[in-house]
Here is the input.
Amino acid sequence: MQVSPTISKVLVVGPKGSGKTSLLCRMIFDSVNECNQMPGQFLKFNFSTGNGESVSFLFKEVNNLPTTEKKSAYILTLNSNNKADLDSLPNILSMISDKKVIIALCMSDLHYSAAFWVEDVKKVIGKKNIKIVPVSSKTGENVRQFMLDLSDMVLT
Ligand SMILES: Nc1nc2c(ncn2[C@@H]2O[C@H](COP(=O)(O)OP(=O)(O)OP(=O)(O)O)[C@@H](O)[C@H]2O)c(=O)[nH]1
Ligand SMILES: [Mg+2]
Here is the structure.
């Protein structure tokens, strides 16, 4: 029997320059060369988890919060090399906390110069059950794992 994939609208939010467009570009094209041609509309991407499940994602970058845009979940990007992104986290969470959210800790290729890391984010989010995944859109490091965690979140 053919099972149609789950369709999930996911908004990509985060501080200015935190890596939203680059992550989208890496997830969809497995490259960052097309970033400057990314449209501001929903981008469709079918993802297979490898164990028989698939998700049809509709991604959109959103630069202003709060938003009235319909969504089922958020990706929140933080630039791990910019301390100000960590400081802005409580305010961002207060504007999206009614929805499922996963945090992409971006620029993990620059881990050596990071201003904060996973444990620091955990301290800020407290008891909230939010997954934090270090990723590099530049190298692609951990991006498949991020997609798997994202799929897991929207499927449950
Ligand atoms: N080294 C490194 N640089 C990155 C990575 N991801 C993004 N960048 C760079 O960080 C800058 C900002 O990335 P964007 O993807 O444009 O961030 P954004 O959140 O879409 O930015 P705005 O749309 O302006 O808010 C760009 O110069 C990217 O090339 C990464 O994983 N590693
Ligand atoms: Mg952008």
In short: The first helix runs from residue 20 to 29.
